[in-house]
Amino acid sequence: MTPPLPLPAECPIAYRFSAISGTGSDTRRGEEGRERGEGGEREGGDRALPGGYIESVELDPFVERFALTTSRVVADHLATGVSVGDLADSAGYSPFHFSRLFAKVFRTTPARYVAAMRFHRAKELLLEHDFPVIDVCHEVGFNSVSTFSRRFSQAVAVAPGELRVVADHLADSEIQPFTLGSLASGTVTGRVVFDDGVRARLRDDLVHREPLVWIGAYPQPVPLGRPVSGVLRRGQGEFLLPVTPAAPWVLATAYAASTDPMHQLAAFKPLVAMHPGPVRPGDAIRLEFREAMSWEHPVLTALPSLARG
């Protein structure tokens, strides 16, 4: 049996594993999470997430190792599927205690993360190759094309075949700033901030034209599915974002205006920002961008498609 990942003496990110799960040494194994449906996820089987997400910057070495190890196991089993029990076994913990820590670090459930990584890989295959949708479906572990297409559309906000149409449109024309949603529902004011590292990555665009910045309001703290509202703007500065109680999580990504369609729609380690807690109308926030870590939840939404309504 794989030994549990060791705990550091102190965890500066506010949560030690024992504080999350009640114990750091429970290695009981159950069948919880082993049932999986099409594509490796039990539909309707996810629990409500606990509060207090761990910030994904300057992680404690234990948490970073946990995240990297878990994401690698997921990446190695995209085609065959991996359950919560399998992931818990790889870390040396019970499914219950593993899921508690996972939710704190990844801001979603294990089943939803596995599905997100599958759909991100499907986006890469659709954009890099001319494979039929049915081949992509099977490559990422789905047996039913209809199930794959339905869930892909929910996660990415466009159908698998339409993603290529969006890419062709981006290759022919440049997307223009726009607002998604009504300002009458209430707004959040904010400021986009780039540090030296982000400015270095966007250097060419900062000289010739401002990079594109997408800011969206989501029902959950991960960029999954169609946002309820959003703003596409250029560069740093202030913004006004429509918000509703149904979508209190503000997530953002930025890329050079000259970026090719592949990297706009399926970027690896994109520039991202997130407000650490849910927002309400009238709030003022600051979004500081950074490069996403390799294990973080991918930006699944095909954001350029939202400009077409």
From TrEMBL:
<protein>
    <submittedName>
        <fullName>Helix-turn-helix transcriptional regulator</fullName>
    </submittedName>
</protein>
<dbReference type="InterPro" id="IPR050204">
    <property type="entry name" value="AraC_XylS_family_regulators"/>
</dbReference>
<keyword id="KW-0805">Transcription regulation</keyword>
<dbReference type="GO" id="GO:0003700">
    <property type="term" value="F:DNA-binding transcription factor activity"/>
</dbReference>
<feature type="domain" description="HTH araC/xylS-type">
    <location>
        <begin position="68"/>
        <end position="166"/>
    </location>
</feature>
<dbReference type="InterPro" id="IPR018060">
    <property type="entry name" value="HTH_AraC"/>
</dbReference>
<dbReference type="InterPro" id="IPR009057">
    <property type="entry name" value="Homeodomain-like_sf"/>
</dbReference>
<keyword id="KW-0804">Transcription</keyword>
<feature type="region of interest" description="Disordered">
    <location>
        <begin position="21"/>
        <end position="50"/>
    </location>
</feature>
<dbReference type="Pfam" id="PF12833">
    <property type="entry name" value="HTH_18"/>
</dbReference>
<feature type="compositionally biased region" description="Basic and acidic residues">
    <location>
        <begin position="26"/>
        <end position="46"/>
    </location>
</feature>
<dbReference type="GO" id="GO:0043565">
    <property type="term" value="F:sequence-specific DNA binding"/>
</dbReference>
<keyword id="KW-0238">DNA-binding</keyword>
